[in-house]
Design goal:
alpha+beta; 11 helices; 35% helix; globular
Length: 415
Amino acid sequence: MQQEKYANERAFSGRSIFIIAHMQIPGFQGREHRVKRRFRTPPLCRPHFRLRLRATAWQAALRIEMIPVDRLAAFVHTVLRQTGLNEEDARVTTEVLITTDTWGVFTHGTKNLRGYVRRLRGGGLRARGRPRVMSEGPAWALVDADSTVGMVGSTFAMKTALAKARTAGIGYVGVRNSCHFGAAGYYAALAAAENFIGVAMANDIPSVSVPGSRGAVLGSNPIAFGVPTGGPHPILLDMATSAVAGGKVYAAAALGKSIPLGWIIDAEGLPSTDPTLLPEAASLLPMAGHKGYGIALLIETLSGILTGASIASHVLSWSFDDPSRATDHGAAFLAIHVEAMMPRSTFAARVQQTIEEIRSAPKAKGADRIYLPGEMEWEKRERALREGLALPEDVLEKLRQLAKEEQVEVNGLFG
């Protein structure tokens, strides 16, 4: 029977070893599962200690639990309904969070549910809030999200942008009085699924320095775009304008890990690898220096300044500030109606021509494939829907805490 070798990172404690293993289990299509468990080891451990176990024994020893996507969705939906969301709003919010987890973007999925519930319980988010159009023209609209859950107001806004674009060719919708909206890519993908080019963006509390500053000036201001391809999945890019999303730094801190240089600077403006400094004594670096700074400022303009939402330091933190207060995040959504400009088949053919040119480019040594933006995430989603989700431990712990606080029976779903 096939055996695999694992074991890369170790932390010693007495005669035990904590092994953070990267494994490949037959039948899981080469998927990596990152797990952590204590093993007893001989008194003398060589630096390149390797653990080998049969795949079935490995699964049993580490108690790997693949969480069915439908069971996780049912839990999320139940919690949201308990906090007062109506059926449709709970469904929309669940869909955004679960889709994000299936993409493997665990920093923006169900991990954040506990924080949203805290704000719903505190009143800073309004369970019965209703987003509404405040002013509009043929190709634009401004929406007040009424401090409802960010996914609800953002989905409403992108659908409004699509409706504008169907008649005008292009639609811009700005949103104020919103909150953290999760993964920007979800809304861009929503547009692409309708054969529109979609763009989504939002501002946030200052967490990113700018060239020459010693502390945070702008938010990590995410932006995403989706382009229909004529195939089952669009090209999809979702990125923060910081060097890395803040959630990844917090995740490293929760796991007791250091981070690479180039992610944050400390209170003196010097590079640091200590994730625990964020946010009190550190700030994120902008993506690509002045280029990321410039894009973040554009996003601040379209999602904050133009919409009437709070700007930069006036935005409240959805996770750290008083949960009884509205955060007043801003967001912006753009939709472009491809068929207003050329036949859908022509556009799809031109996109495929571009994809083929990219994929046929000479590959670097050691590379066997050139991926399109979002391609890895779509493949992860397909596997997750077939096999279930292997959620990171920090996500599982958040969900366990939430289940306990909300008194929702999960029957061992989170281990």
